[in-house]
Each structure stands twice: as structure tokens, then as C-alpha cells.
Amino acid sequence: MGLPVRIALVGLGGIAIRAHLPxxxxxxxxxxxxxxxxxxxxxxxxxxxxxxxxxxxxxxDVLADPAxxxxxxxxxxxxxxxxxxxxxxxEKYVLAEKPLAPTLAEQLDLRExxxxxxxxxxxxxxxxxxxxxxxxxxxAAGALGRPLFVQVSVCDERADPVGQPEHYARMRRALEHGxxxxxxxxxxxxxxxxxxxxxxxEVSSWSLTSSPDYASPNVNGAVLTYADGTIxxxxxxxxxxxxxxxxxxxxGPRGRAVLDPPTFELRTEIDGVRDVLPAPGDKAxxxxxxxxxxxxxxxxxxxxxxxxxxxALAASALCERIAEGLR
Length: 327
Hints:
The protein is α/β, with parallel strands linked by helices. It folds into two domains: about 5-125 and about 285-305, Rossmann fold; about 125-280 and about 315-325, Dihydrodipicolinate Reductase, domain 2, CATH 3.30.360. It is about 40% helix and about 25% strand. It contains twelve helices and 14 strands. The chain has helices spanning about 15-25, 40-50, 60-65, 80-90, 105-110, 115-120, 130-140, 165-175, 180-185, 185-195, 285-300, 310-325, and strands at about 5-10, 30-35, 55, 70-75, 95, 120-125, 150-155, 200-210, 220-225, 230-240, 245-250, 255-260, 265-270, 275. The strands form two sheets. An eight-stranded mixed beta sheet has the order 8-9-10-7-11-12-13-14, covered by helices on one side. It has a six-stranded parallel beta sheet with strand order 3-2-1-4-5-6, with helices on both faces. Helix 1 links the parallel strand 1 and strand 2. Helix 7 crosses helix 10 (about 185-195). The longest helix is centred in the C-terminal third of the chain and has 19 residues, at about 285-300. It starts with a strand and ends with a helix.
């Protein structure tokens, strides 16, 4: 094995501490060289988890260090574009959380940057899982038949202003910059593009606002129609004190496949035969580990980033088609 890939983690919010940082510490081919955060309290708290690692508020200093190979950007989408520009200009590899920017137009601008197609991997984390690969294979092989009826619900961001005030405030801020389907539905839209292998020919959208205090609707939905008659019903719901369960169910003339969102266990019933693909441990741990493995291979072996910016643009384009219908 060659030298480890030296990576800086930028942005130390919940997803960075709960998922990116543990994945970095598990990956033997990666070395965490720096953590970057403008908020002093977050920076100091994270520094206690990784003693000896440089903790700084200056991304410029990190990007100027020739020993740093790559950065992981776990930052809000309205901050991320400028950081991507700086990191690519410094000839670093970049793994950036999704979406890359609040609008598709801003993301299209990023695609034109030197290095964007070769050195920029997108954090569509939950496509990195054996159950998603298996579901894609089943659909591509016609195992469920066609047309399909697909039910997708993304209902993860609960309103808890007392128990989780920081999270609640962050979700409220996100609604000032866009809609849940753009920020949170992108994983589902990416999975639909990946599994179905095509984009819809028609999109019909709807929305609901449960509180006049919210800057934009906290529930988004759409019906997507595909060329062969396949129908997808997609819903993204935020900020209720109790949320309905998330789901990803694909039903066809020959059977049904249920991808359980909390675990990614895949249950199928095809031509009367039932099968279960058990989840290989914790979903987030599996997905973030596989994502980082592929990023390390991109940096160390010069492989194309997976997923790259074109996959991110396709997912964001579908999100934006839905969001345009809401407007």
C-alpha cells in the first residue's frame, strides 16, 4: 500500500462529526491532517476528538499546504460553491456534500471549473450500498416487470425546538434558501435516476406549509411519469413533531421490492418467491465508508470520481423540476 491520502475535513456540523469523521478514522488509506471550522466552539469540541490534528478557521492555509491532497466539504450548500472553487484552484481533490449549491444554475457553473469532472466527487452518500446496487440490477433485468409503481417518502427532519434547538434552527434557515425536495430529496432523486435508468417525461408537483413561520413549504411532493407508464409518487416532509415513516417501494407486475430506509435491508417478492438481502451493519457507517473508499481511490489511483458532477446535476435537475412546479 502506498502513502495514505492526506485529507482535511471542512465544516464540523452534525454530519461531519457523526459520519465523515468516523469514516476517516476507520479508513487506513486516509490520514486526517486538519479540521476547519469558523465557529470556535465547534472547532474546539472537534479538536478534542482528534488530538494532534491541526484545528483551524483558515481554509486558505490548508489549501496552501502542498502536503494536503484533498478536502471533504461538509458545509451548507449556500457556502459550498466558493469553497469548491478555491479547493479546485489549489489543485486539491474534493468530496463535497450535496447539493453543491441551492440552485441548478449555480451547479452548472461549477461544472465548467478546471478539475470539476476529474477531481470533484459528490456526497450522494446513500447510493453507496449493496442493497441499492441489487435493486438497480433487479429493475434493469426486468425482474419486477414494467410499468412500475414507485412510492418514495423522505421524512427524517423532525421539529424538536426544545430537545434539538440547533438542528431546528438549521432546518428553519434552510427553508430560507430553498425547499426540502432540493436539500433532502436529492438522495431520493439520485436513487430514482440510478435505479430506473431514465428521467421522467412529466412532473406534477404540490406543496404544503404547516406553519406560517416557515419561509417556504416544509412538505413537497410530486408525481413523476415515465415514458413506459411508470409512476413515482415522491414526498419530502420536514418539521413536524411526529413524522410519517420514510419508504422506498418498487412494485411491478411480477412483484415488489422494499428498500427499508432506516436499515437498507432489501425485501423482495418476485413471482411468488420471497427473499431478503440483509443489511451489512449500520446503514450510515456502510455508506460513508464505501463513499470514502471510492474517494481515496479517486485521489490515490487517479480513478474517475463516483458519483461525479454529472450525476449530481442529474439529481439536482430532477429536484429543480419538482421545485419549479411548487413555485
